[in-house]
UniProtKB/TrEMBL annotation:
InterPro entries: BaxI_1-like. Keywords: Membrane, Transmembrane, Transmembrane helix. The chain crosses the membrane at residues 50-68, 74-93, 100-122, 128-149, 161-182, 194-213, 233-254. Pfam families: BaxI_1. It comes from Flavobacterium rakeshii. This is Bax inhibitor-1/YccA family protein.
Length: 260
């Protein structure tokens, strides 16, 4: 069974289509020619991921500034989160528009991240943001190095375990959220108990493992010589995982801090 990354971008069928141009031979028969100058590369996807990251940080700085200066950034953050989700949804169905959707996603997501970060910094301690960013960056670099030097190999069994675990987490979060809306029950991962901390650590590990699947799918896309715009498509997918990882690390640090 060929299970792919749980990331909706990297599951798109466009990852199986090479960049081809149709021409005709002397007999008028169609011939497929691949333009290697306009195809996806691993370095291109990684570079575009860093571009998106820079844009996200720049956007986040604005709502962060609002938060630390006594303004309420949450309305803007909610709008940003909704629009970022819309960009994700459109890109998953129309990857050709990824060069335009990717920057928009980064800017809108940044509004949400900046506001949430300001809230955590105000409710806990200011250094929590730097620690969460550092933890995310170090995790990304370590996972990239482990994948690059083939220390961790993405096998079919590896994919199966990571995808199944990710789906279990998503299901648990969704069900817990729905139940909490209609009852007074509070999910265990909301508090700072040892079990809640353990859940956060588990989720962080799974989020980090998703990076390997994302790297693998980007590399596969490059080997298949997919169109150049798929670099932006893959970059959005990688950013989705990094944002998830950052938020989970932030929550874990908040739980640990509240136990002091």
């Amino acid at each position: 069974m060929n299970l792919k990354s749980n990331n909706p971008f990297l599951k798109n069928k466009s990852f199986s289509k090479p960049a081809e141009t149709t021409v005709f031979d002397e007999q008028g028969r169609p011939v497929q020619i691949i333009d290697y100058n306009e195809t996806m590369t691993v370095n291109g996807a990684i570079n575009k991921s860093f571009i998106l990251l820079a844009m996200l940080i720049g956007s986040a700085a604005y709502t962060w500034w609002m938060g630390v200066n006594g303004q309420n950034p949450m309305p803007l953050a909610i709008v940003g989160a909704i629009l970022a989700f819309v960009m994700v949804l459109i890109a998953s169905f129309k990857p050709k528009y990824s060069p335009y959707l990717a920057p928009a996603y980064a800017l809108f997501e940044g509004l949400f991240i900046g506001a949430i970060s300001a809230v955590f910094a105000e409710n806990y301690y200011s250094e929590i943001i730097i620690q969460a960013v550092a933890g995310t960056f170090v995790t990304f670099i370590v996972c990239l190095a482990l994948y690059r030097f083939k220390i961790v190999k993405v096998t079919e069994q590896f994919k199966s375990i990571v995808v199944a675990s990710t789906l279990a987490i998503v299901t648990y979060y969704l069900v817990s959220w729905v139940i909490s809306l209609f009852t007074s029950w509070q999910p265990v991962h909301y508090d700072n108990s040892l079990m809640s901390i353990g859940i956060s650590i588990f989720v962080i590990v799974i989020a980090a493992l998703n990076l390997f699947l994302d790297f693998d799918m980007i590399e596969t896309g490059a080997k298949r010589r997919l169109p150049k715009y798929m670099e932006w498509f893959g970059a959005i997918g990688l950013m989705v995982t990094l944002v998830w990882l950052y938020l989970e690390i932030l929550r874990l640090l908040a739980k640990l801090s509240s136990r002091d």
